[in-house]
């Protein structure tokens, strides 16, 4: 059963997507979480064993939120990633389980010797 959002709003600093659902549930989803958990094949692969750990996204920003029919939004990020289609159920899942997903991501980064921080240009 699909859940329906009543509001999707990007914060002024472009680092948080606020999503409110018709049942009153409301979530503030960080751009970092949305980027590293993108539903795109580029990030998720074609099976759970192919999922990519994306480092350096602590400061990523959302530059566009485009509706896709009546079922999803496409997010474009300032690192030029724009292939993920975020369905309402997936946004709800990220809202409900975002903290655990972010912690699993941080643990994965640490295990692989990677950082959340973006590489700095010299």
Automatic annotation (TrEMBL):
Give a Pfam family name. Answer: GBBH-like_N
Any idea which UniProt keywords this protein has?
Iron, Metal-binding
Every copy of the Gamma-butyrobetaine hydroxylase-like N-terminal domain together lies at 8-92
| Keyword match Iron | yes
A single MF term (Gene Ontology): metal ion binding
Do you know which InterPro entries this protein is assigned to?
GBBH-like_N (IPR010376), GBBH-like_N_sf (IPR038492)
Among its keywords, does the record have Metal-binding?
yes
What Gene3D superfamilies does the record point to?
3.30.2020.30
Q: Which domain of life is it from?
A: Bacteria
User: PANTHER family, alphabetically?
Assistant: OS02G0197800 PROTEIN
Q: What is this protein called?
A: DUF971 family protein
């Amino acid at each position: 059963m699909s859940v329906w959002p009543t509001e999707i709003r990007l914060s002024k600093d472009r680092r948080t997507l606020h999503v409110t659902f018709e049942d009153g549930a409301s979530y503030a989803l960080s751009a970092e979480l949305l980027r590293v958990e993108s539903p795109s094949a580029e990030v998720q692969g074609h099976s759970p064993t192919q999922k990519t750990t994306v480092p350096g996204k602590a400061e990523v920003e959302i530059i566009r939120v485009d509706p896709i029919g009546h079922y999803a939004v496409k997010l474009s990020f300032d690192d030029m990633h724009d292939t993920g289609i975020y369905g309402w159920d997936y946004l709800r899942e990220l809202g409900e389980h975002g903290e655990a997903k972010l912690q699993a991501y941080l643990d994965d980064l640490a295990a692989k010797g990677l950082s959340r921080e973006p590489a700095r240009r010299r």
